[in-house]
Amino acid sequence: MTRLIECVPNLSEGQDTVVIDSFMSALEGIPGLIVLDRSSDASHHRTVLTFVGTPEALKQGVVNLFELASRHIDLREHVGEHPRMGAIDVVPFIPVRNATMQDCVDLAREVGAEVAQRFDVPVFLYGEAATAPHRRLLSNIRKGEFEGLPEKLRAPEWKPDFGPEVPHPAMGASVFGARPFLIAYNLQLDTADVRVAQAIARAVRTSTGGLPHVQAMGVYLADRELAQVSMNLLDFQKTPIHRVQELVKIEAARYGARVLSAEIVGLVPQEALLEAAAYYLQVENWQPDLVLENALVRKGE
């Protein structure tokens, strides 16, 4: 069977629908590539694309996206709530079918080197593809964002893995990597006070003593006049969605706030949602084959 790998590039454009449509068009017609999802956020000024394909198809798709970004995204004019250091900020590869994590590491290195050479963009490797321990976390690489890149790249420990040692004037730098499946999960609060969201994020995220495998930040959504706890769940099997949800609700109550709604950016594994449903329904005999469709698949129907 064909090797199938997922790619989830994050683009620093979430407002101009014409430009975003052009990125989608750049992926159409590539043999072996299937676009699964597009998620744009104007406040974050960011678009997340999800597509799967063969390694060769993914490489062509990513190169096409960088070609468009070089013409349409200028970070000198970019303002958004989400941290960013590149026009195409991060390009992760995730194994899906008949592919290993090493396949994704190899692909990240191959495509990252190609992009750096063709577009004169510094490229860092993160996650399983990282070349040093301090580069495993995306947040470490992105610290300082686009504006801090000139100073950061002067430090020997932040020499790019590929490409020039100065940022591209408009495109900044990009990060390529390989990782397991990640769930981008945001919770909107019934307050506009971003300080409440920031305090909740500190209580929830791993780096400040919260739950394992959780990254979180508090942001203000100007278009909705609400504060948001924006999160990445790095291992939903070890820290499931419902556990994160409940801790955010508990912490929000400290400040007289409530969770209004949830948002999933990109795609989510069925298993993650079923586990959350089983928790909230208090299903005492839960197992995946209680779901009709899962039982049929197991039986080969």
Describe this structure as you would to a colleague.
With 301 residues, the chain is α+β, with helices and mostly antiparallel strands. The chain has two domains: 4-178, Formiminotransferase, N-terminal subdomain (Formiminotransferase-cyclodeaminase, Chain B, domain 1, 2-Layer Sandwich), CATH 3.30.990; 183-282, 2-Layer Sandwich (Alpha-Beta Plaits). 33% of the residues lie in helices and 24% in strands. It has nine helices and eleven strands. Strands 1, 2, 3, 4, 5, 6 and 7 form a seven-stranded mixed sheet that branches. A four-stranded antiparallel sheet has the order 9-10-8-11. Helix 2 runs parallel beside helix 3 and helix 6 crosses helix 7 (241-254). The radius of gyration is 20 Å and the shape is globular. The two termini are 20 Å apart. The model has no long low-confidence stretch (mean pLDDT 94).
Main traits of this protein?
301 residues; alpha+beta; Formiminotransferase-cyclodeaminase, Chain B, domain 1; Alpha-Beta Plaits; 2 domains; seven-stranded mixed beta sheet; four-stranded antiparallel beta sheet
In short:
With 301 residues, this protein is an alpha+beta fold.
Q: Count the domains.
A: 2
Q: What is the CA–CA distance across the termini?
A: 20 Å
- Tally of individual helices: 9
Strand content: 15-25%
State the share of residues found in helices, binned by percent: 25-40%
Q: What would you report as the Rg, rounded to the nearest angstrom? A: 20 Å
Low-confidence stretches: none
Largest sheet: 7 strands, mixed
Q: Supply the CATH architecture of the largest domain.
A: 2-Layer Sandwich
Mean pLDDT: 94
CATH topology of the largest domain: Formiminotransferase-cyclodeaminase, Chain B, domain 1
Element order, helices and strands?
EEHEEHEHEHHEEHEEHEHH
Global shape: globular
